[in-house]
Amino acid sequence: MAGTFRTTVDIAWPYLRKYKRGIAIGAACLLAKTVLAILNPLVIRDGFDSLLAGFAFDKLWKFAAMLGGFSLVRGVAQFYARLILVSISRDVEFDMRNDLFTRLVRLSGDFFQKMRTGDIMARATNDLNQVRMMLGPGVMYWAETTLTTVLAIGVMVSVDWQMTLIALIPAPLVSFVVVYFGQKIHKRFEKIQAQFSDISSRVQENLNGVRIVRAYAQEEAEMKKFEALNLDYIQANLGLARDTGIFYPLMQTLVGCTFLLVLWAGGWRLYTGKITLGSFVMFQTYMGMLIWPMIAFGWVINLTQRGTASLKRLREILEAVPSISAPADAVALGKVRGELRFEAVTVKFGEVVALDRVDLTIPAGTTAAIVGRTGSGKTTLLQLATRLLDPSEGRVTLDGLDVRRVDPGELRRNVGFVPQETFLFSTTLAENIALGVEGATDAEIEAAARKSGLADDIEGFPDGYSTVIGERGITLSGGQRQRTAIARAILRDPALLILDDALSSVDTITEEKILHELRVTMKGRTALFVSHRVSTVKDADTIIVLDHGKIVEQGTHTELIARGGYYAELHERQALEEELEHAA
Asked: Residue 530: which of 555, 500, 506 has the closest Cα?
């Protein structure tokens, strides 16, 4: 428990520190409210004893005014304490959510291979809310209940220590109950949060893959899997409810036992004249005040255990370190010419070798095409150029500068990259094309669309460039999505254009138009692209053939045809396929 507490403080304090002034004011209001509450029973005691000694209306009004004044000031202090401290917990939630998102967008791709999207969403919503409850109401009520208990017991001891000891007889049992159930609740809630992540991931995967689910008629199977997850989640929550259901009544029972002890001991001491009626009433009032702290302490323990379990899960994201980041002594790129070199580059994923000591030079201003069988390392080579991946051995240079010495952000601002899997946002076509280019004009967006062969299609859309394309561009065809991504890359006016099989979903006629526009646009700049079509790569300055992570052929289209290797076979096979299509 101590280790968990230290971890919680270590993570939460940087967020709370910026609100020190507000916390101090809130704590002062909370202290004032608690002190005034503690003074009330003392006023009641003095009022009883004074009035019993001799009744007078002036005495009655005096004590009534004191109690009324204390209650008024206490109410105001309590209002501002809650307003300030709960507001700070909302501010911390805001800051932590921003930090979570910032960390997520900066983390490297390998992190998202290990953590599911649904799990991340569960942590960013449900877990974050539990942390807010812990840092807001949880901390506030913990401070209030602790302070009330300490001050009340202190006053009780000063009045009659023997009677106070009798009242505290159940205290060790209370401590045991709190610790025992606190640990059980913590373990159960950790399991519940993990199950909630599983449910979120299952829903997210089914929504993203809804077409596949329907195409394979898996609706019933997926519903059964979800139902099983949901039942497990319900059972886990019922277990937590059972523990909580035992915890609170048990605490109330112990409080009731304490009341009986005080009533018995106090009544006897009052009967024997060892305490006054005012002191007896004061003791009963203090015991009444201690009921809420004892019950609230159980609620606070519940909130704390939930919050610490959630904070532990959030910590996995907040403290995750990007595998690719800017070096401390980052070197400025300056004006990029576009010369790329791969020097004895090896890339390993565990025991799998994706690239094996690749040596390759792509001169500035030239076009290089990469072909090869599936799994030969083509995409891996492109990811090295944009530093989405670092080599296991060797190095990649741009204009003679090792890309690992450059801020990845600066490097990528000079690159137009169209990945193999096109991703579009659920906004307008214009906003998707202008991604990353602030202040892009309508004319510039339309020009980029024309160069990518998309302009004619857009003219047929009801809202033109203002058409909202839905999540992941679901309203567009595969070819339209690819051409939108190409337009996005062209609009950046990049020094280096990288296309990873970006024309696979367009027909050969459209492909030729796009390639023609790209040759004009990228004249004098470096272009690097992957394709399985000979028609796409035949006009490249150099064609690289990869096989099992090694360069097995390199040259122009004519040179490679003459060698009679893999590329020549690919050319012959595709030429035959075209002849058969025309014959049909």
From this structure: 500
Asked if residue 128 and residue 234 are part of one domain, the reply reads yes
Q: Are residues 132 and 54 in the same domain?
A: yes
Q: Is residue 335 situated within a structural domain?
A: no
Could you give the CA distance from residue 532 to residue 562 in angstroms, rounded to a whole number?
19
Residue 513 domain-assigned (yes or no):
yes
Determine the pLDDT at residue 344. 92
- How far apart (Å, rounded) are the C-alpha atoms in residues 257 and 312? 37
Phi, psi of 220 (to 5 degrees): -65, -40
- For 270-296, letters b (16+ CB in 10 Å) and e give beeeebbebbbbbbbbbbebbeebbeb
Residues 198 and 65 in one domain: yes
- 300-311 burial by CB neighbour count: b if 16+ within 10 A, else e? bbbbbbbbbbbb
pLDDT at site 465: 85
Q: How far apart are CA 437 and CA 351, in angstroms?
A: 40
Q: How many domains does the chain have?
A: 2
12 & 151 share domain: yes
- The pTM for the full model equals 0.69
State how far the Cα of 390 lies from the Cα of 392, in Å rounded to an integer. 7
User: What 3-state DSSP class applies to 514?
Assistant: helix
d(CA 185, CA 165): 30
Give yes or no for residue 417 having a pLDDT over 80. Answer: yes
Q: What's 209's domain CATH number?
A: 1.20.1560.10
CA 103 to chain centre: 8
The long-range contacts involving 433-440, CB below 8 angstroms and separated by at least 24 positions, are 433/465, 433/484, 433/487, 433/488, 433/491, 434/488, 434/491, 435/488, 436/488, 436/492, 437/491, 437/492, 440/491
5 pLDDT higher than 60: no
Residue 57 — pLDDT band, cuts 50, 70, 90? low
556 phi-psi bin (left φ>0, alpha ψ -120 to 50, beta other): beta
Point out the domain boundary residue: 284, 318, 352.
318
Query: What are the helix and strand counts (H, E) for the chain?
Result: 22, 10
Q: What is the pLDDT of residue 394?
A: 92
Domain coverage including residue 63: 2-318
Same domain, 467 and 570: yes
Residue whose C-alpha is closest to residue 5's, from 308, 269, 272: 308
Same domain, residue pair 354 and 423: yes
Name the residue among 536, 435, 532 with its Cα closest to residue 491: 435
Task: Report the distance separating Cα 510 and Cα 270, nearest Å.
Answer: 100
Question: Is residue 404 situated within a structural domain?
Answer: yes
Q: Do residues 455 and 500 touch, judged by C-beta distance below 8 A? A: no
Q: What is the Cα–Cα distance from 521 to 478, expressed in whole angstroms?
A: 23
pLDDT at residue 58 in the model: 66
Residues 569 and 517 in one domain: yes
On the question of pLDDT at 346 being above 90, the answer is yes
pLDDT given at position 396: 92
> Based on the domain organization, do 52 and 106 belong to the same domain?
yes
Residue 355 belongs to a domain with what CATH number?
A: 3.40.50.300
Confidence class of residue 154 from pLDDT cuts 50, 70 and 90?
Answer: confident
Average pLDDT over residues 534-557: 88
Of the ranges 274-288, 333-347, 404-418, 516-530, which one carries the lowest mean pLDDT score? 274-288
Q: Which residue has the higher pLDDT, 541 or 322?
A: 541
Of 252, 285, 318, the domain-final residue: 318
| 477 touches 505 (CB < 8 A) | yes
